Amino acid sequence: METTQSAGEISGNVLFYHSPEPLNREQHAKLALVHKDKPYGFAAAGTAVPLTVSEFAPAALTYPVIFAGEDRVPLAVMGLNQQENLFIEADGSIEPNVYIPAYIRRYPFVLANDDTADRLIVCIDRGSDLLSEAGQTPLFDAKGEPTEYTQNCIKFCDDFEVERRRTDSFVQLLKDLDLFELKKAVFQPQDETGAPAGELVTVAEYFGVSEEKLNKLPADKLKELQENGALAQIYAHLVSLLGWDRLITKTMLKQAAQAPAANLN
């Protein structure tokens, strides 16, 4: 994997990364990681965050795991309203005992396409407040070589890319078996006594695996999914959908807490 080089041309927009630059020993020689007790402020507006297939099970304990768009990209849903994350606050703190997706943990490093060559290059988000010449953990040593910290970050990005490709294969398998269907997450309003009041409200539409289609697969296909590990990931996704109720409850509690403050202004 290319780590340090002259600045190349990179393409694509990546969630959370505002000023990605190819990691370069000349330009970034003095940069260092800024140690923060609450480092996740950059993700506070991340409503839905990409997941790799190996993360489905741990993520399912906290978030609905859904598929979105034509490419059926797997996402951990972390909020119901745009630019809102119910688990990460603006100050960078994160709710205890929740799974943090690898997509967030790799920041401010990322792999990006190099338009001048058919390869991936290691980049950093130069606009991140986690990087500064006044930081505590240098990216490069006195000889201009990547420090152990930087090498570990690069390996994490490399491993993430391997998992991303595995995820692409997993999604393609589900497409080939025609297992996707459009689903809805709904909310039933209640009155002050807890009785249903009004019609169901749709809070999200997304793609998910159809249990009906899954159950109609031939026995040999189901056995194949079991043996290659895909079936366990499918069930993790299906179980995770129970998490919509948690998100709805958290959203309502947050709105209720904000209402008194709004009335005071």
Provide key terms for this protein.
disordered N terminus, alpha+beta, 265 residues, four-stranded antiparallel sheet, flat, 7 helices, single chain
Can you describe this structure?
The chain is 32% helix and 20% strand. The protein contains seven helices and twelve strands. A hairpin with a 4-residue loop joins strand 5 and strand 6.
Rg, nearest Å: 21 Å
Q: Can you count the helices?
A: 7
| Number of structural domains | 1
Strand content: 15-25%
**How many DSSP-defined strands?**
12
pLDDT < 50 runs, ≥5 residues: 1-12
Question: Ends: how far apart?
Answer: 54 Å
Globally, the shape reads flat
Order of helices and strands: EEEEHEEHEEEEHEEHHHH
What is the SS-derived class? alpha+beta
Tell me the strand order in the biggest sheet. 1-7-8-2
Protein name: SapC
Organism: Caulobacter vibrioides OR37
InterPro entries: SapC
Topology:
Elements: E1 10-11, E2 20-22, E3 32-33, E4 48-50, H1 56-60, E5 65-68, E6 73-77, H2 102-105, E7 109-114, E8 119-125, E9 131-132, E10 137-138, H3 148-176, E11 180-187, E12 201-209, H4 211-215, H5 219-227, H6 230-240, H7 243-264
Antiparallel strand pairs: 1-7, 2-8, 3-9, 3-10, 4-6, 5-6, 7-8, 11-12
Short précis:
The chain is of the alpha+beta class and 265 residues long. Helix content is 32%, strand content 20%. A hairpin with a 4-residue loop joins strand 7 and strand 8 (119-125).
